[in-house]
Fold:
Amino acid sequence: MCVAAPGRVIGIKNNIATIEYSGNTVNANAGLVKIKPGDYVLVHAGLVIQRVNEEEAKNMTELFKTLEELGNE
Structure:
């Protein structure tokens, strides 16, 4: 099973978006979804697959943190 975690777009150049995840950055192809810097997105297999609003992104991030903590007990 694959899970796409939300990240924030910090830049785009030639359809390649730089996405920030908790201080780490990755590049992803942004050709499928219209995005701009500051947007929150889901990335799967190197592609931006969906734009999400900030509240949804924060809720998902908190959920993943909680699941990680439970898995470490």
Notes: Residues 54-71 form the longest helix (18 residues).
